[in-house]
Amino acid sequence: MKKLNTLFIVLTFILIVWIVINLIQSKNQSTKILGPYPNVKGGEFSLNSANGTVSLSDFKGKVVLIYFGYTWCPDVCPTNLSLMSNALSQLTENEIKNVQGIFISVDPGRDTLDKLAQYSNYFHPKIIGLTASNEEVSAIAKKYGVSYRIVKQEKSATEYVVDHSSVTYIVGKENQLVEILPHATDSETILKRIRFYLKQ
What pTM did the predictor assign? Predict the structure, then answer.
């Protein structure tokens, strides 16, 4: 009887350990979308760069990070792009080959393609700047749940600013939106999420 009780305790312990391990693995493998737009679907788009038309599908097989903003942005855009850049800079040579950053301007009236190229490249050479007509940008922003509006600035050299949502989208290797990172997500978290999706 004593042997049976010991065996029961051992089997129970093994079962508990197995359950805990599976819960941890399940949590780590989660692709739950974070951020303020849990029902956003994302999807394909084609926009203009200084070097021609660029589509999301051009990067199939890679992990893509997308951020919507504008070059005149005084704070939130530089903050998020700097964090993205820091994460990209920590990737190995083999990893960075399979990652692409995209900065989409919601201010095509002021953000020329050349300016976008210079601005995005300043943060990291693996970030490209894209935009198109107001109508095209608006349609893509809607797909990704991006909200933005022009706010006039009287007696200001910039004339207006653009209030916009500030999140970073992660697109997986099959061009599917897999995660949305909140504003100012630290670079270590971004790096971990990139590496997670590179393994998928």
Answer: 0.82
CA separation for the pair 50, 44 (Å, rounded): 20
CB 63 within 8 A of CB 98: yes
Domain residue spans of the chain: 1-30, 34-198
Question: What tokens appear for 117 in the block?
Answer: 């190229």
For 59, how many CA atoms within 13 A lie in the half-sphere containing its CB? Answer: 31
Residue 169: φ, ψ to 5°:
-95, 135
DSSP string computed for 15-68: HHHHHHHHHHHHHHT--PPPSS-TT------EEEETTEEEEGGGGTTSEEEEEE
Q: Which residues are CB-contacts of 199 (< 8 A; sequence separation ≥ 6)?
A: none
For 60-118, the pLDDT digits (tens) are 999 999 999 999 999 999 999 999 999 999 999 999 999 999 999 999 999 999 999 99
The answer to whether the CB of 67 falls within 8 A of the CB of 80 is yes
The top-level CATH class assigned to 34-198 is alpha beta
